Amino acid sequence: MTFKMIKLCIMSFWHFVFMPEQTVRYVTELTECIKVRSSDEDTDNSSEFVKFFPSFIWAVRDFTLELKIDDKDATENEYLEFALKLKHGTSRNVMEHNLPRECIKKFFPSRMCITFPFPTAPEKVSCLDSLNPADLSSEFLKVADHFCKIVFNDSNVKKLKDGITVTGRVLGHLAKTYVDTISSGAVPCLENAVLAMAMIENEAAVKEGVQVYKSGMEKLKDSFPLELKDVSSEHQSLSSMATQTFMTRSFRDSDGECLKSLEENINKLFEGYLCQNEQASKRRCEDLLSSLSAPMIKNLKQGFYAKSGGYDVFCKDLEDIVKKYNSQANKEVKAEEVLQEFLKKKSVDSKAILQADKKLTAKEKKIMEEKEKAALLKQEVKAKEEKQRQLEEKMEAERQCNEERMEQMKEKNAEEMKLLREEAERAMDCKLREQAALLEKGFTEKADKMSQEMEEFKRRNTETESNRAREFAVILENLNRRHEETMSMMMNHHEVRMEAILKKDDCCIM
User: Fold this and answer.
1) Parallel, antiparallel or unpaired: strands 56-60 and 111-115
2) Taking a C-beta distance cutoff of 8 angstroms, is the pair 160, 194 a contact?
3) Are 236 and 404 in contact (CB under 8 A)?
4) CA 232/CA 397 separation, integer angstroms
5) Which of 20 and 438 is assigned the larger pLDDT?
6) Is residue 111 helix, strand or coil?
7) What is the pLDDT of residue 335?
């Protein structure tokens, strides 16, 4: 570690570490400065602090005492536990001695003591900021390096109640919430702070997830038109990534409303990209037909088919155009629909040429008309079948997306429940150790009181798990309900489009 880093750490704790008697006084005030639940106005729920409080590092500066207990050598941690030893009795002095020590034991299951010698000669302490490395005590630097390694490498990531990790961004929200609450004269409530942060973070998580999806689809759009399966495949992949991005950042989305918002945003965007892909496909198919039919258009303008036997020549030319078109546009999402429209338009020219062809008898012309109607009907059926196939493909993509979301939700819930149980187990283990220590030292009454506290602690944990399970069941139920609604909406939209096409076809026939 460089001297600059060591000095930074030295100055960081040098001005803010309290001597033992000062420290314990502040700890006793914790229950008055913060509460866990908003509903427990008059209830002492400080027993839950142990679930999310950080490790307790007691840094003692200018330590000159011998690390001995009853004339026997002791470690720094043994010295700390000795300093936290309770006294028997009920006098005011005994209670004042025990209270802060009980609070430290109760709130901080993980405790550590580090003793710092003088950093330098007494006459140089007043100018620590400007000292050279050589002026600092080697023993002090050794302890400072050890202290920094513990803080940087061994300290656990800060968490809130229910195992919520505190990132820098969350810490900023938390600090603002506490400052605003204290400024208003109220007592900060962790539950309310978490809910406020959840609202901010979950809204941001939705935007982040949408941006992941949108960025990926915008890149894909550069390749439009594509086959529907390619667009659907990328949609599924990006939808999964967006959901994962959302879940990584979000927490306490108890009613699933934010997940619903993400889902609706993605579905809306997907429909838009499908529309853009269809438009690009339609343009390509129309351009292809325009190119392939250019010679025929020229012949029509020049009256090339207006002769005996012209209808047969026209049909062969049209057949050749369709054959080439099918070979080049068979993977386009709008291939069949565009071809259907093209054949309808050309049927007008076809009828005129057929009626003008003197080579054919009236009976033959009638047969040719029926044959042409059958060909148009066949193409219409193909176009409808293609639309149905595409609908089924989109519905299958939606089904797979929903299954993926369900799995991601289950994994997130399982991880959250695991953290919840681990948090409760650590807290319970701490309470059991403290109870055992009380019994060993003869504090039977305090141990009995702790038993009641642990029973209440277990009850609340069981209640929390049950509530979480119910919330999750509702979220899954809503997820499935929205999926069914989406599938129904897709079917209805498809039926409306098909009815519109049928009406259009009927008008053309009439």
Assistant:
1) parallel
2) yes
3) yes
4) 6
5) 438
6) strand
7) 96
Q: DSSP string of 31-59?
A: HHH-BS-SS-SS---GGGGGGT---EEEE
Please report the domains of the chain, with CATH numbers, ordered by start residue: 3-155 (3.40.50.300), 157-292 (1.20.1000.10)
CB 116 within 8 A of CB 136: no
- Structure-model confidence comparison of residues 434 and 501, the more confident one: 434
Name the residue among 379, 464, 453, 347 with its Cα closest to residue 417.
464
Spatial contact of 262 and 484, defined as CB atoms under 8 Å apart = no
- List, in sequence order, every beta strand (DSSP E) within 71-178: 72-73, 111-115
Pair of tokens at residue 89: 């009795």
Q: How far apart are CA 235 and CA 244, in angstroms?
A: 14
Residue 227 near residue 216 (C-beta atoms within 8 A): no
Dihedral of alpha carbons 215, 221, 226, 232, sign: positive
Instruction: Identify the sign of the CA torsion 63, 67, 69, 74.
Output: positive
Structure tokens given for 150: 């513990």
The three-point CA angle 325-328-329 to 5° equals 75
Burial of residue 193 (CB within 10 Å: 0-12, 13-18, 19+) is buried
SS3 112: strand
Q: Is 331 helix (H, G, I), strand (E, B) or coil?
A: coil
The confidence band for 382, taking pLDDT boundaries of 50, 70 and 90, is very high
Between CA 421 and CA 435 the distance in angstroms is 21
The Cα–Cα gap between 478 and 255 comes to 9
On whether the pTM is more than 0.70, the answer is: yes
Distance from chain centroid for Cα 259: 8
Question: Residues 365, 367, 372, CA angle at the centre, nearest 5°?
Answer: 95
The Cα 200–Cα 127 span in angstroms is 45
Q: Is the Cβ–Cβ distance between 106 and 434 less than 8 Å?
A: yes
Longest CA–CA span in the chain (Å) reads 129
**Beta carbons within 10 angstroms of residue 181's beta carbon:** 17
Q: Is 339 exposed, middle or buried (0-12, 13-18, 19+ CB in 10 A)?
A: buried
DSSP state of 62: S
What average pLDDT score do residues 253-261 get? Answer: 87
What six digits make up the tokens of 476?
């899954």
Q: What is the mean pLDDT of residues 291-305?
A: 95
Residues in contact with 28: Cβ distance below 8 Å, sequence separation at least 6, in sequence order = 99, 100, 103
